[in-house]
Design goal:
Helices cover 34% and strands 20% of the residues. It has a six-stranded mixed β-sheet with strand order 6-5-7-8-9-10. A two-stranded parallel sheet has the order 1-2. Strands 3-4 form a two-stranded antiparallel sheet. The chain starts with a helix and ends with a strand.
Length: 217
Amino acid sequence: ELFGSVEPLLPSLREDGVAVWVLGAGPYPPGVVALQELLDAASEELEPEDVWEPEDMNDTCLYIFTSGTTGLPKAARVSHLKAVMCLSFYELVGASSSDVVYLALPLYHMAGSLLGVVGCLGIGATCVLKEKFSASQFWDDCRAEGVTVFQYIGELCRYLVNQPQRPGERQHGLRLAVGSGLRPDVWRSFQRRFGPVRIVETYGMSEGNVTLFNYTG
């Protein structure tokens, strides 16, 4: 459904040697790779390791967009090693395979895709993907899906605290919230209003090589 935005750029992308892959039914212009057809035709058998294993774990795995904290949004290089390290994110913050993780962050950022989705793969947890965050629907979603872990950016918690109070706000299974940018006043208000949810605040950068975890609360 987003291909129309890219189509006018195809000639210049081809000149620059940029491949365009699209999911979904075609037809597409020449030079565009329709992934769904290839997936449907692909064998269930895994290729030998030397086909898919990186020669060097520090080689580029993918490019991911930063939020633009130091300027306009830009693509940051993520190595295979860094992507693999994200598999252990939820284990580091105290989640396990029995958890159900609620994720409403954009998947073109590192927090949503690598820490969120890849982190769930790393521990074998269930991931509940929400297309767009809704403060008014959040607790209903948590109850309906059996959510136990919530990954946030600080503003999401503020949106929840600023919602009008409603019955049943403390009737949920959420035990852990993990993310970045939660102000101390919102932190206290969140726990006072919604119950003793453990909060683990983290800080890192897509293009950085150090991550901080506030284990002590």
